[in-house]
Amino acid sequence: MYNQLKSLIPIFIFVFCVCGVQAQGEKPKKEKKGPLSKRLWGGYDTNAIEKNLVIKDAFVTEGDRTIDGVLVEVKLNKTNIDSMLTDKTGGFKTDLRFDYKYILKFSKTGFVTKLVEIDLTNIPTEFKSQGYDLGRFQLGMVRFTEGMNIQEYKIPVARYYFDQRMSMVNLDREYLKNRKQKIQQQKEGNQAVIASVEEEKDELQEEYNILIRDADIEFEAKDYQLAKSYYKEAMRLKPLAEYPRTQIKIIDGMLDGKLADVEKYKALIAQANEAYELKEYSEAKEMYLAAIKVNTTDAFPREQIKKIDVLLAEKKAKDNSPKEENMELTLKGVEISSDRAEFCSELAKKYSQGLTVEKYMEGSKSITRRIIVEGEIGVEYKHVVHNWGGNYFFKNGKPTTRFTWQKEALQN
Question: What pTM was estimated for this model as a whole?
Answer without folding.
Answer: 0.42
